[in-house]
Write a structure and sequence with these properties.
The protein is mainly alpha-helical. 34% of the residues lie in helices and 6% in strands.
């Protein structure tokens, strides 16, 4: 039998059952047949519910979810798996989880459209189900676009003899047009967040589709602005017009609509002293009221706009907390966190330096201690970076067992919409007003305890506004899978990744660092070379003179270039369909 594009049947899409008292509590769809199915609006709705297994979540159907958490970027390193994506050593493989699963998911959505076209009842009764289908098809094509650029467009359910199985690659511009068209249909068909019943919370809404479209528009506008056609495969048809400003304008407008929707709000409970200004940590590990010091349950979270739903019955099924602790933050990330006066550490008089362990956290952005545990009472061990991430790790008073974590996974949240808005405005106009910053970036800074970003702050301290907006995005969305793709669309991947990735400042013979043990007792310590199996390196990190840091990944092992902006088409696909052109450099 001929097989192309649809390597896997993606049984998870058809058999996605879940927990009680949520919209996912349905009989597995693979127990049904066409003879008794697609006969009523309820059956279409049930089928559309099965598509939700396509969302990124703790059981990631593409690559492992932890590989998605910026470990291929300059922000983090997984010490036991420095993968080829982050080092510029991507190889052509026979198969790809992203390719296979995305196309299997697309096939599942196309089945929905095919069956709807043959439905003799009132088509309006199917609108929400169709809207969900259009969203998920756009969702999958966007991930294909990010990974491979232009790919074959398939909008039907082909059989083994269909010509679609031998289609050439569409250009990235044609793929973008389909994504945007599908999202427009999703927006038109889907209900608003405020109209969802409690049992339906977690379903895609028109607000979610608008927010996701703003992501796509910003991504493609900046890709075209900073990369042009430099990554296109041979023979790819370029755009008739660049559409950069058109996309940016629409991104801003869509963000404004979502930002004005009272159904969404930033999750900020820092006014409760029990939270110790760590809302940015506990937002990401809400299992129930007992999962944070303030006693806030999932019903208080209006920041997650699109998310994978979990509860005590639908658990993560993977060691979330234990694995997160291994995703080592970099020195570069740590130095990106601003001081409370809104200034970078190299400019702020509030920065205390690294001589006393843990003092680098003082007078800093609350997200620094929320996302990365303070180092005051943690002993360095050989070969580690000295930092432990806590974003997505469950509350420290609970010890997870049997992979039973069940916090929701955020696919898209309101904070990203604020960041999309600010960046799109600046990219469009070359400026952003303070009032526009106050309704976007500065709401996040309020939660982070950082002075507002203003034009006066930027101009008076020799800063660059676009750099500061990008800094805010990098910090806020750390571990949510944005950094690598952001660097690509900004055309800066080579500049930022072709350098050593370093960890904690450890000092040397001329630079003493004072440590304490777990009980807070002073420990006299000087640098000892054989302690750090990855070696050390002197870097400029917030002090006048370079300081010695643990090396997580040496620059001699990294060789990123423009070819790494896209992944290679899997070789098995080209064998089956010679009409597929390979991406440049592979």
């Amino acid at each position: 039998m001929k097989k192309i594009l649809y390597i896997a049947a993606c049984a998870g899409v058809m058999g996605f059952s879940s927990c009680a008292d949520t919209f996912l509590d349905l009989e597995p769809l693979d127990a049904k047949t066409d003879l008794v199915y697609f006969q009523t609006p309820e059956q279409f709705r049930e089928y559309a519910t099965g598509l939700y297994g396509q969302l990124l979540g703790w059981q990631c159907r593409y690559d492992g979810i932890f590989d998605h958490m910026d470990v291929s970027s300059d922000l983090s390193t997984y010490m036991v798996n420095n993968n080829d994506v982050g080092t510029g050593t991507i190889q052509v493989t026979a198969n790809s989880g992203w390719w296979d699963n995305c196309y299997a998911n697309i096939r599942a959505t196309n089945i929905l459209f095919q069956k709807a076209a043959a439905y003799f009842g009132n088509q309006e009764d199917l609108e929400q189900s169709l809207g969900e289908g259009y969203f998920f098809r756009a969702y999958n094509y966007f991930y294909l676009l990010q990974h491979f650029g232009g790919v074959p467009i398939v909008t039907v359910v082909p059989d083994v003899n269909s010509s679609e199985l031998y289609s050439a690659r569409s250009s990235r511009y044609e793929v973008v047009d389909l994504i945007l068209s599908d999202l427009d249909k999703a927006i038109a068909f889907l209900p608003g967040e405020s109209s969802l019943s409690a049992d339906d919370k977690g379903r895609i809404t028109s607000g979610g589709a608008k927010a996701f479209k703003s992501r796509v528009l910003l991504y493609e506008a900046t890709w075209r602005k900073y990369n042009g056609t430099s990554t296109d495969f041979e023979g790819s048809a370029g755009p008739e017009k660049d559409q950069v400003n058109e996309f940016l304008d629409e991104a801003v407008a869509l963000c404004e609509e979502v930002m004005s929707d009272n159904a969404y709000a930033i999750w900020n409970y820092n006014s409760n002293s029990a939270m110790e200004n760590m809302s940015s940590r506990f937002l990401f590990c809400i299992e129930g009221p007992e999962s944070n010091p303030g006693g806030y349950g999932k019903d208080t979270n209006r920041e997650f706009i699109i998310y994978s739903v979990y509860d005590a019955l639908r658990i993560a099924g993977t060691e979330v907390t234990q694995t997160v602790w291994k995703l080592t933050p970099s020195r570069k990330l740590m130095d990106m966190f601003l001081c409370t006066d809104g200034l970078p550490i190299e400019k702020s008089p509030l920065f205390k330096g690294y001589h006393v362990r843990g003092e680098e956290f003082d007078n800093r952005d609350y997200r620094m201690a929320s996302y990365v545990g303070r180092t005051d009472n943690a002993a360095l061990t050989g070969g580690t970076a000295g930092y432990t991430p806590y974003k997505f790790a469950v509350y420290y008073d609970r010890t997870p067992s049997n992979k039973d974590e069940h916090h929701n996974y955020p696919v898209l949240r309101l904070a990203e919409v604020y960041l999309n808005y600010a960046e799109a405005l600046y990219e469009r106009n070359g400026k952003i007003e303070d009032a526009e910053l106050d309704r976007s970036v500065n709401i996040l800074r309020d939660r982070a305890g950082v002075a507002h970003l203003t034009n006066a702050l930027v101009n008076g301290n020799g800063l660059n506004m676009l750099d500061e907006i990008r800094r805010e995005r990098t910090i806020e969305l750390y571990m949510e899978g944005f950094r690598y793709d952001d660097l690509k669309r900004w055309g800066k991947l080579e500049d930022e990744l072709n350098e050593s990735r370093c960890g904690m400042v450890v000092g040397d013979a001329d630079y003493k660092t004072d440590f304490v043990d777990y009980d807070g007792n002073p420990v006299s310590s000087l640098y000892t070379p054989n302690t750090y199996v990855w070696g050390t390196e002197k870097v400029q990190a917030g002090e006048e003179e370079p300081v010695t840091c643990v090396v997580l990944l040496g620059k001699n092992n990294i060789s990123v270039d423009k070819n790494d902006y896209l992944w290679p088409i899997p070789s098995r696909q080209i064998e089956l369909n010679p009409n597929l052109k390979q991406n440049p450099g592979y």
